[in-house]
Amino acid sequence: MSRYDRRDLGLLLLRLGTGGVLAAHGTQKLFGWFGGGGLEGTGQFMEAVGYVPGKVSATAAGLAETGGGTLLALGLATPAAGAAAAGAMAGAAAVHTPNGFFNQGGGYEYAATLGLTAAGLAVTGPGRLSLDHLLGHAVNRSWMIPAAFAATAAGTVLVVGARTKRLRKAKEGEQDPLFDEEYLE
Question: Which residues cross the membrane (predicted)?
């Protein structure tokens, strides 16, 4: 047995922390665990923020977060797991972008942090304390990294782009008031 180094332990901690948070977040969507809305409540929210149909969007996001997070934590199929989680977080960041960067004001800071960490793990690899290593990296080959990110990017661009188009179309015809009410009094 080879000796594990600090890098392996650090990657394990990153995978467990990031993967665990993502998996928990996803189970809120899928099952209503940890105070989440489940598919019904999350589907209504997704619909309200422009991801239509809401229940399908909630299912896709929940599976990407739960599945990607669980696989990241285990260090299994790391390129696909990290890319899937990063794609889900890009979709979440799109919702929060109008609120600025910081999470305190409802911004995209949290989603960006989780997404970038997941992407970094997909690129770096899981380390030796992982199922990928135990299985001889059968589902963690170098070519899988660009393939996973290309597939995820394509899907994310389509979904977020459709949402953006839908929101713009809904806003057409709306007109901001010409004058603030306080000046009319």
Answer: 71-95, 107-123, 143-162
